[in-house]
Amino acid sequence: MADQPTTGRRVRRWQWGWGGWRAEVGRLLEVAALLGLVITQPLLDVLGRSPDFFLFHRADRREILLLVALIAVLPTAAIGLLGLICGLLGPAVRAGTHALLVGLLVAALAVQVGRHLTPLRGVPLLLAAVVAGAAGALAHRRWRAPGRMLRVASLGPLIFVGLFLFASSTAPVVLPRGDGGAAGTATGSLHPPVVMLVLDELPLVSLLGPDGGIDAQRFPNFAELAAGSTWYRNATGVSGWTPYALPAMLTGRYPAQPYAPHYSHYPDNLFTAFGGLYDIRAEESITRLCPPSRCEQPVMPEQGLGVLVRETGRLLRQVTAPQDSRIDPENSYRERTAEEAGIDAAEPVPDDPKFRWDSLNVNQPARFTSFLNGLTPSPRPTLHFLHLLMPHSPWAYLPSGARYEAPEEFPNEGDGWVDLARARHLAQLGYTDRLIGETLRKLRETGLWDQALVVVTADHGVSFTKGAQGRGMDAIRAAADEVAWVPMFVRTPGQRAGRVDDRNWEHVDLLPTIADEAAIRLPWPVDGRSARQTPRTEPGKVFYDRPAEPTPISGGVPAPLPPPAPHPLVGTAVGDAPPGGTVRVGGQDGLRAVDPDSGQLPALIWGTLPDQVPDGTLLAVAVNGTIASVVPVVAPDPGGRRFAALVADDRVFRAGANRLDLYLVEPAGTLRHLTIS
Prior knowledge:
Layout: H1 4-48, H2 51-56, H3 61-88, H4 91-117, H5 122-142, H6 145-153, H7 156-166, H8 171-174, E1 185-186, E2 194-199, H9 220-227, E3 230-232, E4 235-236, H10 242-251, H11 270-274, E5 279-283, H12 305-320, H13 338-341, H14 366-373, E6 382-387, H15 417-446, H16 448-451, E7 453-458, H17 473-483, E8 488-491, E9 499-501, E10 505-506, H18 510-517, E11 520-521, E12 541-546, E13 549-553, E14 579-586, H19 589-592, E15 604-608, E16 618-623, E17 626-632, E18 642-646, E19 660-665, E20 671-676
Parallel strand pairs: 2-6, 2-7, 3-9, 4-10, 5-6, 14-20
Antiparallel strand pairs: 1-11, 3-8, 7-8, 12-13, 14-15, 15-18, 16-17, 16-19, 19-20
């Protein structure tokens, strides 16, 4: 009988413990529901619509599933552990911590909802979110209904994961269906090597000089390529979106479905057609059209779960920020350096010392280096393929090959900013021209220049027309000549002279043309027409902003755009000038210790000006006493009255400390010196 009270206490303790665990699980479910809305859903939504993110980083099924598990489980597990620790400190601490977490998560959710449904941004949105979070925490504490609703909503993360794995555009990348289509059949005995380089976001008009030909002064290597090949000058891409444009080029079919650019959706393509007769050496960027049965996929250090987690963390900061962010997956792609890729990139030093190829190994796109190293003759016919994200943004290269840093939040729209974007695009195109030169040099050294079918083109262009920048429907309607028309060069084996062909070429013609030149019959019908056939008689073209929705476009070979005229002050020396006010400049540390041999230069100068400086006032940027750029003062944007100027000529920089001066240019041409604060 003496033991009965003790037994009763044990039962009561067990019952209290069981009730405590039930309460703890309930709290965890509530937090899981909120975390699903704040983290899991927005991340998996963006990643589910961006299969190219995983294709670019060559992520396999295991890595993607691990990433999804981390997104869906890790935050909840961390909060659960925090709850257990707080529970050891007493019920009051645990209840207060839970209320605080609910308030913070409701506030974070309010930021995302407010950014989509209201015009509030920045501090006002944060203040509104704090109010919403406090109200949510109070409602959760006073009434039972919010908690019950959250516990039901805890099924949300499972639903979000299911949609990602089985219903999103990324689903085929995680769970591929099939392994490619049928191989083509030989129609002859001569199958030349094929060298195919697809550039990205390169409008033909960017290459044109005043006479309508390739501007040989600015882009000598593109001009050399045109002089030795057939230039299809009236060539247009099929879409402004690479996941639709590139499959159309490599299948010969117009976009029909919003599919991921993956071999399970496009089993019939260039790589499967050539795979029976050719060795395939393919370097894809944001597609995976070559199936594992045809292409080896080398493992690179700049891939794997760690990279996916790092980039997903950046994405989370974007989707949860109180400011708008332009989430374009391609803009976040970073080419692996040669060191990261483990490539021995020891290249002969070019004759042009400004290129400094030997000193830029850590900055050159490693995918290009791998492609270049593979350009060697082989006893078996070989297809060498590279899709290179150049001169695609983010813009980071000067024509010399030197690299520069720039803030990510610069706008690309509006007066002044469009001009800056085009200047940066043209500078990076100058660097791309040097890559073309290296390709031509390697082809000649190996003998492939005369033996191979050489194809150089781009998947689409981009508009720098004010009010219609980019490559969407607004740009197509206002500036189709910039978005649709692309460079298209084909050099047949043994071709001795260049020529121009102005037939109505659409990029669905690319695969039929290559197959004809390689003596391969395609085992499926195509929408395109080989260049060996008679040209199209109809002048019209179509462009697809969305699959199965062709937009007619008209026009022929585009006229060259007026070249950006340098201001007369550029290149002149400056002396003393009267004061004109103050200016704030960012990134000044890079000017204090310039090392040109590192391949990095502080070539972008940016900052903010006082509000009283009138719109349209010219601002001169001088480096070491020489004016290197003149830009207009533009209207304020959400970041303030900002300015930015590109110093594209790296000859103005010197090793060591560099002096920066900024001047207001008055209507009479006189200068007023600005004090840098």
